[in-house]
Structures are given as C-alpha cells and as structure tokens.
Amino acid sequence: MEFKLDATSNGARACTIKTAHSTITTPVFMPVGTQATVKALDANDMLSMGAKIILGNTYHLYLRPGSKLIKKFGGLHGFSKFPNSFLTDSGGFQAFSLSDNSKPDENGIMFKSHIDGSKHYFTPQSVLDTQYDLGSDIMMILDDLVALPNTSERIQKSIERTTKWAKEAIEYHKSQQEKGIGVNQNIFAIIQGGTDKEFRKMSAEQLCALEDYDGFAIGGLSVGEPNQDMYDTVEWTTQFMPKDKPRYLMGVGTPEDLIENIERGVDMFDCVMPTRNARNGTLFTSFGRMNIKGAKFKEDEKPIDEECDCYTCQNFTRAYLNHLYRAGEMTYYRLGSMHNIHYYLNLMKQAREAILADNWVEFKKEFYEKRSQK
C-alpha cells in the first residue's frame, strides 16, 4: 500500500491510498457488500458511480459460500467482477452480534452459525486465512469487542485481548508473506476502549506501536451511544494515531456523522445505512432525508434531489419512485440504492475538494445550512 497525505483543513484530511487494485482518494465512503455484492446493485453499477473500494464481510462469506469456493473463482474480484479494491472485516462483530451464545476466550471466539446453528471458532490466524482466500486489498484483524455500556473490567479485558491478537496477527501475516501468501494484501488493527478516554488511549498506544500495520481503525462505536460521545471519542483517539497511515472509523454512519468525523481526522468510513434506508423508503438529499412512500410524492414531477446527477435523479421522478415503492417493485430497490450510494460518494468527493481548497469551514457550514432549509 502507498499512502500520501495530500492536504489538511481545520483537522480534516485529504489523502491518497494506492492498493493493488485501485487508487482511493479520501475521505472515502465504502459501500457495504456483505455477500460480495452491494444489495440490489452489481459491479457495473458500482463502477458507474465511481466506487474505488467496497466492503465485504468475512463472517458471512466464510459461512456461505465459503472462502475456498471464492478463491477458486479468483477471490472476491474474480467472483463478483468488481475490479477495484475490497476491504474485508474480520467477522468478529458478526460472530458477536448474530450468535446468541458467542464466547470469546484468550485465543479467539466460539460462535454458532446464524444459518444452521453449526459451531465455529475464529482465531487471529484463521480469519486471516479466510481473507487470504478472499483476496481482499485490506484485511481487518480479529478484535474483542464488547457491548456498551459495560464494566471497566470487561473493557480492559477486551483491550488486552485485542492487543494480544493484533501481535499474533501481524506476526502470522509477515510469516505468510514470506511464503508468498497475501503479498499484495494490507492489514489494519482495530482500536477498542468504549467511550472511556483512558481506555481508548491505552488501546491506541498499544496498537499503534505495532509499526508493521498498514493502517488503524476505530471500532466499537455507533453501537447506541449518543452521537456527541462518539464524536468526542473519535476526536480524543485520533491524536494517538499515526499521521502517515489511513484512519478508518468502522460502521459509521449518517451524512452528519461523516462530516463531523472527517473534521476529527478520519479518512475512511463504511455503513449499511445508504442501502438499508433506501430499501425502507428513506432517501438522502442535499436538504436532508426524504421518505419516498409519502402520499405527497404521488404526483411529484421533480427528481429526488434537484442538485443530484445520479442515474436515478437524471431519469426518474419522485412520483415514479413513490409508485414503485408502494407497488413493491424490485426496480425501486435498485434505483433508490443507486441514489443513496451516489449521494454518499458525491458527499465525500465534495468534502475532499473543500479540504484541498482549504475551505472546510465554509463547506461544513453550507452542508448544515441546506439541511435547515427543508
């Protein structure tokens, strides 16, 4: 991986990341392709919107169809036909959240499949083996995350385990690369610690001391804590993260969350929100959210967002989308998802332009002013 910090503006960063498959300019939003596809969209849709990186889910792909099968088809790139970069998470969050009785211990996480109840065990080494098969450009390591709120004892234990697993993972990754495995794949560690400043500092300092990591993520947020607590935690944590490596905030969030955390020094984001909200009838616009199923849109001739140049807005009316949604037509899911993903990608493009022009404060002010007009 090549990394370059291009510019800063009031804490916000514009960077360039080069992987084996694409050049990624930041800030970047990574659409979530849980099952090796962004829901309702295909590789050509993602390319038409300019996506340089999408996220795949190690847990789901490990269980179905299996990483060996994906490897047989040329990894995620060959299987999905998306030629640009993939980031894959470790699967630890899904093992934690989808299994009624996942049990972490000192060496990994035991969990039951949400599909058939079969038992599985993730270790720092095994999740990397899965991701080697997937061929992702950026691999996340296994971390021990905890629900919030939680006891100080449990949060401290999660930090200890996460650091232990991070050391095991980087040693394993280096040994595999010496064998010619994963030589074009990069590896990120995940900072934990809840919303406690001292715990976050402890986790960040321990992990960022492992200099062989290609980047670092902030995990364990956007799990129900107040937004301001998330922002304060990110602002506190980024000061302990290297300036010359990517910073990734996992699982976040709304357009407002992205703007606030870009200002706090974050480069990379992912969230299911654009596609999940689209499927539920909620569309994102320059002026805030719109619920397209509302009766007031039944005869509305305007596009979703008159400032948007996505395929949906250039070709279809609110009335048509309202009809498709109310009729339960699958075409709605594609058109709504395309608009929302385009909105997120374009917001990141505009943010980058503002940072490069050292115009961040004005850009952020205009972003919120438009939302107050709706």
From TrEMBL:
**Binding annotation for Zn(2+):** 308, 310, 313, 339
Note the coiled coil stretches, chain numbering: none
Q: In which pathway does it act?
A: tRNA modification; tRNA-queuosine biosynthesis
What does the note accompanying the cofactor annotation read? Binds 1 zinc ion per subunit.
Q: Which UniProt keywords apply?
A: Glycosyltransferase, Metal-binding, Queuosine biosynthesis, Transferase, tRNA processing, Zinc
A Pfam family in this protein?
Answer: TGT
Catalytic residue list: 89, 270
- EC number(s) stated in the UniProt entry for this protein: 2.4.2.29
Catalytic reactions on record: 7-aminomethyl-7-carbaguanine + guanosine(34) in tRNA = 7-aminomethyl-7-carbaguanosine(34) in tRNA + guanine
Q: Which Gene Ontology terms of cellular component type are present?
A: cytosol
Where in this protein does the record put region RNA binding? 251-257, 275-279
**Alphabetized SUPFAM superfamilies for the sequence:** tRNA-guanine transglycosylase
* Its job: Catalyzes the base-exchange of a guanine (G) residue with the queuine precursor 7-aminomethyl-7-deazaguanine (PreQ1) at position 34 (anticodon wobble position) in tRNAs with GU(N) anticodons (tRNA-Asp, -Asn, -His and -Tyr). Catalysis occurs through a double-displacement mechanism. The nucleophile active site attacks the C1' of nucleotide 34 to detach the guanine base from the RNA, forming a covalent enzyme-RNA intermediate. The proton acceptor active site deprotonates the incoming PreQ1, allowing a nucleophilic attack on the C1' of the ribose to form the product.
What does the annotation say about its assembly with partners? Homodimer. Within each dimer, one monomer is responsible for RNA recognition and catalysis, while the other monomer binds to the replacement base PreQ1.
Q: Which family does it belong to?
A: Belongs to the queuine tRNA-ribosyltransferase family.
Return the protein name.
Queuine tRNA-ribosyltransferase
User: Per the UniProt entry, what species is this protein from, by scientific name?
Assistant: Malaciobacter pacificus
Gene symbol? tgt
